[in-house]
Amino acid sequence: MEKFELNILGCGSALPTMRHLPTSQVLNVRDKLFMIDCGEGAQLQLRKMRLKFSRINHIFLSHLHGDHCFGIAGLLSTLGLLGRHGEFYIHTHPEAEKIFRPFLDYFCYELPFKVIFEPLPVGDSSLIYEDKSIEVTSFPLKHRVPSNGFVFKEKQGLRHLNAEMVKFWKVPIKDLQMIKEGHDWVDADGNIVPNKVLTKDASISRSYAFCSDTAYYEKIIPFIEGVDLLYHEATFAEDAKFRAMQTFHSTARQAAQIALKAGVKKLLIGHYSARYDDDKMIFEEAKSVFNNTIAAKEEMKIII
Fold first, then answer.
1. What are 133-179's pLDDT values in tens digits?
2. CA angle 170, 171, 176 (to 5 degrees)
3. pLDDT tens per residue, range 177-223
4. How many whole angstroms separate alpha carbon 201 and alpha carbon 208?
5. What are the residues whose beta carbons fall under 8 Å from the beta carbon of 93, sequence distance 6 or more?
6. Which residues pair with 32 in a beta bridge?
7. Which residues of 84-107 are buried (b: 16+ CB within 10 A; e: fewer)?
């Protein structure tokens, strides 16, 4: 099965601590790396996790709060020093280019590659990226500033050849690709061999949803329903539920309730507040509602 792996570079909230760095993740889809948010320290975490800078061509920014985007300028500067070429895409709020472009023009004016800001829809959902292996959809979250969630959905692959039957029917190599694409095969005598005889079902496509930062918001459920892995912020425990409401964040219990109602297969929580000395209470609160919960930590790799 092809790679579909999530790498956690940082899973803390606004205040960095000795335990957690600000939010940043990298999704590895068939050895193409997609960065999701880029908090401070992201490029150092890339080094630690041995993720190749050259394979990142897209950053998806959920919103314009510093703990989710302050690492961008440093990362782009480093990519320039490494001699990267081609185009680099940042999928972000429509106002982002006004903020970042002057900074890049001053500090990164000799970049050997072009930085392209792709505006995300504000208050609406949309397909924002597509290639031969994946689709990325953006949808609105509920936060103090415009904020977007993302669903990364693997495209259905080709059917798998049934080696025994391919050999039995003496199918020539030149026809194998057509058969994997789902076509029946006709032999030299004009006999039609159904595709289902020569192939097996394709691998089931996988999906990952990212939701940070957001208050409890049931309107996201149709977008994330049934995903294999949901990352949902769990900034606070129930002891700070009022604070969560004030700041438009979620408690661990609320994150788990969303996961339960959306029927996701696994929940990953993170974006922990610096007020907690450890994440055990947050994890236990989420797990009491949604059993298949895991707690994010730096340098964690999750195979989806």
1. 999 999 999 999 999 999 999 988 777 787 887 787 788 888 788 88
2. 155
3. 888 878 988 888 787 888 887 778 767 889 999 999 999 999 999 99
4. 22
5. 61, 63, 64, 119, 120, 122, 146, 148
6. 29
7. beeebbbbbbeebbeebeeebeee
Closest CA to 48 of 7, 93, 6: 7
Span 45-82, pLDDT tens digits: 999 999 999 999 999 999 999 999 999 999 999 999 99
Side-chain-side CA neighbours of residue 82 (13 Å)? 15
Burial class (CB in 10 A: 0-12, 13-18, 19+), 198: buried
**Closest-CA residue to 109 (of 72, 80, 148):** 80
* Residues 150 and 68: beta-carbon distance below 8 Å: no
DSSP annotation of 123 reads: S
Structure tokens at 270: 């993170």
Q: What is the DSSP track for 129-148?
A: EE-SSEEEEEEE--SSS--E
- In angstroms, the CA 61 to CA 193 distance is 49
The 10s digit of each residue's pLDDT in 249-264 is 999 999 999 999 999 9
- Distances from the Cα of 45 to the Cα of 8, 17, 40, 71, angstroms: 9, 15, 10, 11
Query: Where in the sequence numbering do the catalytic residues fall?
Result: 67
Q: Is the pTM of this model over 0.85?
A: yes
Concatenate the DSSP letters of all residues of 244-287 into one string: HHHHT--BHHHHHHHHHHHT-S-EEEE-B-TT-S-SHHHHHHHH
Q: CA 262, 266, 269 angle in degrees (round to 5)?
A: 95
Tokens of 204: 């089931």
Tokens read off for 166: 């391919």
